[in-house]
């Protein structure tokens, strides 16, 4: 027996939906880069791990998730997420400039 109404269930799903989506993105980044999910979520400062984390943050932001939502999943502060997104944006801009 559930005490939750259909409206309660819908509200609960709205709360967890961003976390689930961001975790799925993390799994995709992990699969495509070969970097373990634990390294993406972890505190590693190894360049390739940071790059994968920055890519994930950028992807999630591009899909409309807030820096707070992304930070909750990755256990990082808002400012860390903002920095990660900026790092990935700078990297992409420098590649575009180099390609010209």
Detailed description of the structure:
This protein is mainly α and 100 residues long. It has one domain: Orthogonal Bundle (Chromosomal Replication Initiator Protein Dnaa, Chain: A). The protein has helices at residues 6-33, 37-41, 47-62, 67-74, 78-99. Helix 1 (6-33) packs antiparallel against helix 3 (47-62) and helix 1 (6-33) packs across helix 4. The longest helix is centred in the first third of the chain and has 28 residues, at 6-33. The radius of gyration is 16 Å and the shape is elongated.
- Give the strand tally: 0
Count of DSSP-assigned helices: 5
Tell me which oligomeric state these chains represent.
single chain
The tally of structural domains comes to: 1
Order of helices and strands: HHHHH
What is the CATH homology-level superfamily? DnaA protein, C-terminal DNA-binding domain
CATH architecture identity: Orthogonal Bundle
CATH class: Mainly Alpha
Mean of all residue-level pLDDT scores: 94
- What about the largest sheet? none
Q: Gyration radius, to the nearest Å?
A: 16 Å
Shape: elongated
Query: Any idea of the CATH topology?
Result: Chromosomal Replication Initiator Protein Dnaa, Chain: A
Unreliable stretches covering 5 or more consecutive residues? none
Range of helix content: over 70%
**What amount of the residues lies in strands?**
under 5%
Amino-to-carboxy terminus distance: 63 Å
Structural class: mainly alpha
